[in-house]
Amino acid sequence: MSTCLQLLRLRTVLCTVLVIAGFSANSAFGQGNAAAGATLYTQKILIGGAQLSCQDCHGFAGTFRELRFPGQNEAMLLARINTAINGNAGQVMGAYSVWTAQQRTDTAAHLAVAVAPPAPPPFAPLPTPSASPSPAMFASTAVGATSPVVAILLTNSAGTAITLGSPAVAAGTGQVADFKSASVPAGQTTCVNSGILQPGTSCSIGFEFAPTAAGDRTATFSVNFIGNVPSRTLTLQGTATGAGGSTAPTSSANAPLNAGAGALGWMNLLGLLALLGIGGTRRR
């Protein structure tokens, strides 16, 4: 690359003016064929034992190695091309001395309108590994007890390896304190921080349900990945019973209206009727 830089040194203003004057008789400025110039600019020729093109040294639009500067028109670009070729006889740019005046003008016309190609769009996100089961359901468990382990299987369906984050699993919303990390069953591969999931492979994340209060309990956790891979949300659900397996006591406010109506209740009712003279023997 240093050779290219040396061969494209700027010449003096006087040299540039002389070159422009010398070529003005052969090719009028603004008469170049940009399409033909694009072909010439990308055409490879043998230089120093290697096949090279102008674009190889100067980039798509000539912005590398001092060939093109912002605001230059075709005439300015032609002068710069001629200066580079004529001033480097026997060197890399000297190999283009065989170009005719029209070919040089065409190349200048191409550079005058060439623009760098648009930047490529960002890489599309990779598919997030699937999770199964979803949601993860736990057996009914008493408050203070711990359920059997439920293992959630993550599977990489992408065509490339995916790396888990660190931490790989983070708490989300809900009763997260009721769901504990646990070892996965034997024979399953544990998902670990910064672990790599090759295409088509799986790993497991284990959870236990250890409720702290009775009722339906739900929580979410996120599985994170490195790079352009969206996180995966895990939903965990379980029902907690009261300590010892009983459900939470029913509030007296919601008890049936006739609750407690046993033998004692009937006796109280009969006594009340007797006082009112209802149901007894009437005196005449």
What does this protein look like?
The structure is a single chain. The chain has 284 residues and is of the alpha+beta class. It folds into two domains: 2-113, Orthogonal Bundle (Cytochrome Bc1 Complex, Chain D, domain 2); 130-245, Immunoglobulins (Immunoglobulin-like, Sandwich). Helix content is 25%, strand content 24%. The chain is built from seven helices and twelve strands. The chain has helices spanning 2-7, 13-24, 34-42, 54-58, 74-86, 101-113, 263-275; strands at 45-47, 50-52, 130-132, 136-137, 141-142, 150-155, 162-174, 179-182, 196-197, 202-209, 215-225, 232-241. Strands 4, 5, 7, 9, 11 and 12 form a six-stranded mixed beta sheet that branches. α5 (74-86) packs across α6 (101-113). 23% of the residues are buried.
The profile of the biggest β sheet is: 6 strands, mixed
- State the helical fraction: 25-40%
Distance between the terminal alpha carbons, to the nearest Å? Answer: 134 Å
The CATH homologous superfamily of the largest domain is named Immunoglobulins
The value of Rg in angstroms is 43 Å
> Ranges with pLDDT <50 over ≥5 residues?
3-29, 245-267, 280-284
**Mean pLDDT across all amino acids:** 76
What percent strand?
15-25%
Count every beta strand, where a strand is a DSSP E run of 2 or more residues.
12
Number of helices: 7
How are helices and strands ordered from N to C? HHHEEHHHEEEEEEEEEEH
CATH architecture assignment name of the largest domain: Sandwich
Give the class-level CATH name of the largest domain. Answer: Mainly Beta
